[in-house]
Design brief:
Structural class: alpha/beta
CATH superfamily: Acetylglutamate kinase-like
CATH class: Alpha Beta
Strand order of the largest sheet: 3-2-1-4-8-9-7
Number of strands: 9
CATH topology: Carbamate kinase
Radius of gyration: 20 Å
CATH architecture: 3-Layer(aba) Sandwich
Largest sheet: 7 strands, mixed
Distance between the termini: 45 Å
Oligomer: single chain
Shape: globular
Length: 271
């Protein structure tokens, strides 16, 4: 009797083999809902931004405050130099990737806490992963939230193809939020204008790339692709967030332009 309430697909999922590829393809047919299509995910870099201190952070926060009345924002934080130091010590002591992921999570949380206190006058809540179900309420009431970008894989973080550094870090965590909630945009705030053919701090011949596809970017085999490589892979399988934007937050007005949908910085899109 219960099966009469199920669709054909529903019955197949209940009684079938969840490793069957034909069945898995069928699960793509029902469209997924857009939970927060008017919200923007803004990820503020750790090493590239927060570690620079007040000269970089304070002007950006002033711009954020001006944008909050006009744009819903889910603000994530990177980990930065302190996480890299934790990784170096952890690797030297023989810690596995899952433990390194835990260490990086604590640093990203520290940065989120600091931004939370700096924006206390705006009443913007700091939320942890278990509070994300309340995200629509927080955005409706306060227009923005702050979270730590490290995805909550912790001990369940998969081993990377090379080395031991966690492959899914804060860029990935922020991107996943934008995809799951079908956010309006995914904006990465860095200390460079976007993607270059080489590190512009070290190579004066580096050329700026304003727009590029994930497949083309991968084919270039660059040493630095400006975001975690896992993000590029996830974009190619995304249902909602098939583009990201990388901007220079040190330049006043860039975040506002990005939130307004302007083509500032670099846009990376899935084919």
């Amino acid at each position: 009797m219960a099966n009469e309430l199920l669709t054909k697909l529903g019955e197949a999922l209940v009684t079938g083999d969840l490793t069957n590829e034909s069945l898995l393809h069928e699960t793509k047919k029902p469209e997924t809902i857009q939970i927060l299509p008017t919200a923007n995910v803004v990820k503020i870099g750790g090493q590239s931004f927060i570690d620079r201190g007040r000269e970089a952070v304070f002007p950006l926060l002033d711009e954020l405050k001006q944008c909050i009345p006009h744009h819903k924002m889910i603000i994530g934080t990177g980990a930065g130099t302190r996480a890299r130091h934790a990784y170096s010590v952890g690797i030297d002591l023989g810690m596995p990737t899952g433990v390194l992921s835990v260490l990086g999570t604590f640093v990203s949380m520290q940065n989120a806490r600091m931004l939370h206190y700096l924006l206390a006058d705006q009443g913007i809540p700091f939320i942890e992963p278990v509070q994300f179900p309340q995200l629509p309420l927080y955005l409706a009431e306060r227009q923005a939230v702050i979270f730590f970008g490290m995805p909550p894989y912790t001990f369940w973080q998969r081993n990377p193809a090379i080395g031991r550094i966690p492959p899914n870090r804060t860029d990935t965590g922020a991107y996943l939020i934008s995809e799951v909630f079908a956010a309006k945009s995914m904006i990465y705030v860095k200390d460079e204008d976007g993607l270059y053919t080489a590190d512009p701090k070290k190579d004066r011949n580096a050329k700026f790339i304003p727009k590029i596809s994930t497949s083309e970017l991968k084919s270039m085999n660059l040493d630095d692709v400006v975001v975690e490589r896992a993000v590029l892979d996830m974009m190619e399988h995304a249902e909602h967030q098939r583009s990201i934007q990388v901007i220079n937050g040190l330049k006043s007005g860039n975040l506002t332009k990005a939130l307004n949908g302007e083509d500032v910085g670099t846009i990376i899109y899935a084919d």
